[in-house]
Amino acid sequence: MEKEPSYKDKKVISIGVVSELTGLTERKIRYYEEKNLIFPERSNRGYRKYSFRDVERLMDIADQREEGVTTKEIKHELSKKEKNEAKQKMIRGQLNARFGVQKK
Question: Mind telling me which PANTHER family this protein's record contains (predicted)?
C-alpha cells in the first residue's frame, strides 16, 4: 500500500510565494535549480511548483551561501546526506523484513 506523501513533500507552492518566504529572488531560485540543488515539479502550463521541504532546503542553501560555502560544496554535502538516508531506509527495510517489524 502506497503511503500518502506528507504535506511537506507536496509540490504546490509557486516560485513567487517561495521567493517571498525565503527572501531569495526568483532568478536565484532558478539558479539553484540549474545547479541541481532543488528539483521543482512543473505544472501542465510549465510553471514551477515547490514543496515546503524545497523552501526549507532553499533557506538552508541561502544560509550556507552567506557563510561562504560554494554551490558545489553544498551539492556534495546534499548528495552525501541523501545517500546516507537511502542507506538507512534500506537497512530499516531489511530489518523489518527479517524481524517482522512494521512501522505504524
Answer: HTH-TYPE TRANSCRIPTIONAL REGULATOR TNRA, REDOX-CYCLING DRUG-SENSING TRANSCRIPTIONAL ACTIVATOR SOXR
54 falls within a domain: yes
d(CA 2, CA 39): 22
Domain assignment of residue 1, yes or no:
no
Residue 103 reports pLDDT greater than 80: no
The alpha-carbon radius of gyration of the chain (Å, integer) is 17
Mean of pLDDT over the chain = 90
C-beta separation of 58 from 29 below 8 A: yes
- Give the chain's domain count: 1
What is the domain extent for residue 12?
7-99
List the beta strands (DSSP E) in 1-104.
13-14, 41-42, 48-50
| Terminal CA-CA length for the chain | 13
pLDDT at 85 over 60: yes
Count of alpha carbons within 13 angstroms of residue 21, beta-carbon side: 18
